[in-house]
Amino acid sequence: MILFESLGLLQCICIAVVLLVTYPLCRGIYNVTFHPLARFPGPRLWGASRIPFIRSFLTGNLVHDIEKLHQQYGPTIRIAPNEITFSHPDAWNDIFQLRPGHLPFEIDPVWWGTPPGQPESMASAASEMVHRRMRRVLGYGFTQRALRAQEPIIQKYASMLIDRLRDQIGVSSNSDDAVVDIVSWFNFFTFDLFGDLGFDESFECLQHSEYHPWISLIFNNIKATCFIITARFYPLIDSILVKCIPKSIKKLQSDHYQQVRDKVQRRLTREIQRPDLMDSVMKNNEKLESMSLQEIESTFAILAIAASETTATVLSGTFNHLLCHPEMLKTLVEEARSHFAKEEDMTLDALKPLAYLNAVLNEGLRVCPPVPIMLPRLVPKGGDTICGIRFPGGTSVSFQSRALFRNPEYFHKSTSFLPERYLPEARKPDSPFYNDKLDIVLPFGLGLRGCLGKDLAWAEMRLAIARLVWRFDVEFVGTPVKWEELKTFLLVEKKPVMIRIRERKDFTLLQSSEFRPQQWARSALPALKSSAPRPDPSLFRRRYALHRLPRTVLSTADVHPPSRFIGPSGCNRLPIKMWQLPIPIVVLVLSQLCTFFNSISATPLSAQQAMRFSPARLLSASVLVNLTSTAVCTNLYVSSYAGDITSLQLIKSADDTYSLTKIAANNGSSPSPTWLEKDSKTGIVYGLDEGFTSPNGSISSYKPSSSGVLTQIDRHLTLGGPVSSILYNEGKSLAVAHYGGSALSTWNILPTGGLSPGQNFLFTLTKPGANPARQEAPHPHEALVDPTDSFIVVPDLGADLIRVFSIDKATSDLTEQTPFPVAAGSGPRHGAFLESAALKACKKESYGCMATSAQANNGTFFFLISELANTVTSYKVTYGEKSLGFEQVFQSGTYGNQTTPVGAASAEAILSPDHKYLLTSSRNATILNIPNFNTTNSTTLPSDTLQSWSINPTTGKLTFEQLAPAGGAFPRQFSVNKKGDLAAVGLQQSARVVILERNVLDGTFGKFVAEIGVPGEVTSVVWDE
Q1: Which of 231-235, 326-330, 364-368 has the lowest mean pLDDT?
Q2: 451 is in an annotated binding site
């Protein structure tokens, strides 16, 4: 203090200047030499200071600069003192998915923080619980069922787009064409549509053929946000930098937010019911408990941009590329015009099967991603691994989707616009696109913060492009826009794309023609057979140095953490420690032993026979006998929305303890595996893909090895949203229920285990059901076969029907019969049949018993669980010649003698193997608590429930026996082993599979004996028995 008092003003100023100069210099030296991230590749100047990053960001060149850096330094690079960016596929799951045993990567508040003076929104909520709370409320407005209800609104603005473009023809001259900026018109369309869906107020851009003043305000607000973000990089002087931001920019943000507030409040004061986003929010948030008014306002301020500008960007970029390739445009025009004779026939469902349209849009999303950078997350406290590399807690990590999507390592001619890569022919081995990694193209993001509006975006894009090329002949005017060179300020800054439009010459003729278009039910997309894409070794090569071991060893080793991988596909992996090497060997030994013991378990062998069976193992007879008494192994298969079917092995040791181990994973049913069906006779496993990130679902067949590794046999595209399947007609065919596609499809099973398409049944509603939010369309939720193998039964949640189809035993064809109506608004979901005693005796006496109606009528019952009403109902089943009758004999709430919790949603219903008990599950009501599976953690886990009901085989009535914990959240599906003493539960929101003991005598569930984390939302689990 005395020293400073003795210094003059000039000396103090000099000291301050020296400190201001030397501190950044010293800090820069530290950053490039001693900082924990100094070892990662990247330009030294970027690693030393944030300034190069900020300069690139504010000039709109960040996306291009980082892509060049990835090309120079590899898939993992350092772009700022405390930021690492990735362009490797593995980083998708590691950063954005919730991994078992890992903490979530929270959003980086620098990028996601709330603007000054505004409340927290769904996007800016740092807490995953808060984000999930808001997302649950908003999610109802973005579901497939909501989209069906919103279709008239979407069609209205698509028609207005076409009509207003037609009005431009001849405006400036007497010619039969017009020159327009299609970028502006796509923006008019998307913003007007969101204005209506979000606020019940169109911006009237289409009506007036110009931007609403608020739209310009939104565009400027995006740039203003860039300045706000830049200031946050320096928290110590953040407040000073914020004050330096021009008042005009701050006013842009406040004006934008105030406009949203006014629109939200006007919409809320209108006492109307319409299928828009705000109506869904209020129906599921009546008292503003789940989402406050301020949170709604702040969130809709984000949605106004996210749900409009991004879709317009993809439409504009895709159309720009189409016009650069006249031959592609011609193919798309021919597809649209050959499928539809009238514009009004272009419904959202009718457009989904257009293969080339979907391919064009998928390729547009790849080369013109609306959000080229996935905004950063923070590595959790304590550190975590990404791509096999450990990073310190607090490190900012981002993902470069544009750089990944344009990487020649993963795509043939990666920078070229080639929709053919998305056609089924591209999956053939002789195609140049055969090795393209289409599953890594995730433009809508991944995980709990993935885009809510992807279904709406797909609907808008299909409709706008299809109707435009159907109605008009189009061509470029001037020079095409080089889309890859456009600047990015969080979003792409688009340039005008000038095109000439002419109304198609035969349009007048079409309007007066007598012919009619093909009906959608007849022209539904055939299940396009495609060769199953095989995993690329360069992408999934996660092996130790075990080159001399058998192939099964390498398959097993694939599931463990990687060692260093040399080559361009690597993710800058670090060398493995020597003590880690035994892990795959241990798994290998267990796998080989289980394979061997399973193979001899059916017919006990003598010690001498056992020795002859496997002499290479050099095991004595006494050792074999001892080992068979100490290890019992069973395989299970698990599907999850992470994209994989995971093979698990359940091992029971001599001390009666169990353990679950991951054996392998297969991504053949990606991106959204939703259901598994195992043929107990052939061993073939059938998997469904719900197709969340693509216009169609898919169905695959797999051959399992004795060690549990699945090999894909066949794969086909299906109608949208398949969620359940069942084998019928003695295993000759498969019936599939399509929740999102409002359909039932059938598939013939080939001798090879492959599949060929059968029939498609599409269902419609004349009006929404008693619960319009969930019953705006038919939603078949499960396909079941009756005990006589003569009928397929389909509970339809959306239509409140039990649909019935008779089976032609000669052809496996189905014939739709009169459906049975259930209580309005009950939402039937799943069910199970109890066969009569006479029928069971017939089957026992004769394999392939030809059951008679009399045998079936004498004690056959059907148990139905209804999701919306949360009820379990018993029906006595009566058989006609080609029909089924249902007579209700019992009904109870899903929770038996307890009050049904608010928000509960019934899920699964199955019979125990002895047919003495009905077992059910319920979700979204974690009313029980269980000890943590991590014994070092004293925090209890909230759990949903399973229920057990005893069955009176004479009357079909049920008696509630037990309410048991399911082991976590959202037991969407579960199954029981053949012996009936173990249950495997798939917990969707807990990303976990648990195994429970079950008492076969009293039907109750017992203690948890094993559990394992499975990446993503678990959708089904089946036993390999």
Answers
A1: 231-235
A2: yes
